[in-house]
Design goal:
Distance between the termini: 32 Å
Helix content: 25-40%
Order of helices and strands: EHHHEHHEEEEHH
Strand order of the largest sheet: 1-4-5
Number of domains: 1
Strand content: 5-15%
Structural class: alpha+beta
Radius of gyration: 17 Å
Number of strands: 6
Largest sheet: 3 strands, antiparallel
C-alpha cells in the first residue's frame, strides 16, 4: 500500500540557490540529527535482534533489489557486502539511504519532511554513509571540465559530508 499526501514546503534542492551559507549549514545539521534519530530510535525487527549477526535488510523484503530498486552492483555491494567491521556483531540502525537534497522537504528554515523511502532499511550509519558519499553525491572531480569557480564547486558538493561526524 502506498499512502501519499502533500507535505507543505519545497524540496531542499529547489530552495538551495536562495539560501545563505548559514541556512545551508543549518539544514545539514538538521539532517544529521534526523539521520541519528532514525538510526537510534527506529526499532530493529525482532528477527534482527535475535540473530547473533544481523544482516542488512530493506524495510520491505525485495527478491530483486538490483532491478526493482534500481541499485547498481556497486551500491548493492556497499549495502550488503562485507564492511570494515566484518566478523563483528554490528548494530544495523535504520537509514533512509537516499538523503539527497531533492528528497528533503523544507519550509521556514526547517526540514518538515522526507520523501522517497524506497531504499530505506536497516543498514547502519557506516553503510548508509558510504552509499551517500560514493553513490548519491557529486564529487569535485565531476566538474573538472567546467568553468565553475571553486566556490560554485564547493556549493555543489556541500552535502557530500552529511554523514561525517554523525
Amino acid at each position: 500500500m502506498i499512502v501519499e499526501s502533500r507535505i507543505p514546503g519545497v524540496a531542499l534542492n529547489v530552495a538551495w540557490p536562495y539560501l545563505t551559507q548559514a541556512d545551508k549549514a543549518s539544514f545539514k545539521e538538521q539532517a544529521r540529527k534526523i539521520v541519528r534519530l532514525l538510526d537510534e530510535q527506529v526499532p530493529q525487527p525482532s528477527t534482527m535482534i535475535a540473530a547473533a549477526m544481523p544482516s542488512p535488510s530493506f524495510v520491505a523484503a525485495d527478491l530483486n533489489p538490483l532491478g526493482s530498486k534500481r541499485l547498481t552492483d556497486f551500491e548493492y555491494a556497499l549495502l550488503f557486502g562485507e564492511t570494515d567491521d566484518a566478523g563483528k556483531a554490528t548494530r544495523l540502525g535504520f537509514a533512509h539511504n537516499d538523503l539527497s537534497e531533492s528528497n528533503i522537504i523544507v519550509q521556514d528554515g526547517k526540514i518538515v519532511g522526507l520523501v522517497d523511502w524506497e531504499v530505506a532499511g536497516f543498514f547502519g550509519l557506516a553503510r548508509a554513509g558510504k552509499v551517500h558519499a560514493l553513490c548519491r553525491t557529486r564529487k569535485p572531480g565531476d566538474f573538472k571540465n567546467t568553468s565553475f569557480s571553486e566556490e560554485k564547486i564547493a556549493d555543489l558538493t556541500f552535502w557530500n559530508d552529511l554523514y561525517v561526524g554523525v
